[in-house]
Amino acid sequence: MDDIAIQADRLGKRYRKKWALRDCTLQIPAGRIAALVGPNGAGKSTLLHLAVGLLRPDEGEVRVFGAVPRDNTALLADIGFVAQDTPLYKDFTGADLITFGARLNRRFDTALARERLAQLRIPLDQAVGTLSGGQRAQVALTLAIAKRPKVLLLDEPVASLDPLSRREFLQALMGGVAESGTTVVLSSHLLADLERICDYLIVLQTAHVQLAGPVDELLEAHRVLIGPRGAGTPGEVIRESHTDRQSTLLVRSGAEVVPPQWTVQDVSLEDLVLAYLANAGAGRAAQLERAA
Question: What is the pLDDT of residues 110-155, one digit of tens each?
C-alpha cells in the first residue's frame, strides 16, 4: 500500500441526523498534489479531519499509508495539517513556535523552518498574532513542512488571503514539497489556483465523491460539444445547455466517434468541476422533489 497515500472505503461521518460525508470511497496515490473541491458543506473539512485522525468515522474507514490515523501517534508523525483558520498561539513568536514544533516532532527540521521564514522576511522575534494574514498562513505552512511529513493536508489555507499572498503561499508550498515527494491534499474554492499546481482532482458534492482521478486523464476523457439541437450524442452527458437551434454539451466520452455535425472543444478544469457540481446539485434537487 506504499503507493497509496490515502484510502477511504465507504467512509461516513454524521453530526446528529445529518451526514457530512457518506459512502466516500477513493484512493489518492502517493506523491500527488490533490485538489479537493466542492461547495460549502460538501464534506471537505470532514474528510481532512478524518484523515488526520481528529474525527472518528461513523461508517467505513480511512487509512493513511495503510494505517488508521485515529489514536495512532506513530502515524501522526507522518501527517502535516494546516486547518482552515491557520490556528497558532498568537502570543508566541516565530522562534517560540519553531522551538515548540521541534519538541513535539522528532523529525522537525529547525534549520529549514528558520531558513524559510527568513526567506519570506517574517521576523522570528515578533508575536504571530501581530503578523498579517498572509504571514500567519506562511508560518503555519512552514511549521507543517518542517515536520517533514509524508502527507500534508491543507484545509482552505488561502481562503482569506489577497491574490499576491495566495500566489506567494502556493509558490512556497510547491518549493517546500518539490524535493521531498510529499503527498499534498489541498482544499480550496479557488479553481484557477488549483489548476496551476494540482495533478489530482477530487470533487465532493452533497457529502459524496462525484469525481476523482488524475487531472490530465480526466480532462482527456471529457469534451465540450457544440452542435444542432437534437443531434445524436456520443458519450455520457454531464452538463447541457440549449438554445432553440443549438446544444452545448459537456460529455464524458470513450472511443466513440464524434459525428461531423458536432464541434469539439477541450474542457478546462473549471468547466469540468462546475459541470459535475451542477449535475450533482440537479440530481439532489430531483430527489428532494420526488420525496416531497
Answer: 999 999 899 889 999 999 999 988 899 889 989 999 999 999 999 9
pLDDT in tens, 267-277: 999 999 999 99
Per-position b or e across 242-281, b if 16+ CB within 10 A of its CB: eeeeebbbbbbbeeeebeeebeeeebebebbbbbbbebbe
Q: What CATH number does residue 208 fall under?
A: 3.40.50.300
133 and 210 inside one domain: yes
Task: Summarize pLDDT for 35-55 with one digit per residue, the tens.
Answer: 999 988 889 999 999 999 999
Q: What's 258's DSSP letter?
A: P
Do 42 and 175 fall within a single domain?
yes
Residue 160 shares a structural domain with residue 240: no
207's grid cell: 457529502
Instruction: Classify 119 as helix, strand or coil.
Output: helix
pLDDT score recorded for residue 220: 92
228 and 205 together in one domain: no
pTM attached to this predicted model = 0.86
**Distance between CA atoms of residues 245 and 37, nearest Å:** 34
Range(s) of the domain holding residue 233: 221-291
Q: Which residues contact 262 (CB under 8 A, 6 or more apart)?
A: 225, 226, 227, 231, 234
In this structure, the answer to whether residues 126 and 187 fall within a common structural domain is yes
Half-sphere exposure in the Cβ direction for 78 (13 Å, CA): 19
Residues 133 and 250 reside in one and the same domain: no
Same domain, 192 and 227: no
Q: How many other CB atoms sit within 10 Å of the CB of residue 181?
A: 9
Q: Give the count of domains, the chain.
A: 2
Q: Which three cell numbers stand for residue 81?
A: 495539517
Tell me what the pLDDT averaged over the chain comes to: 87
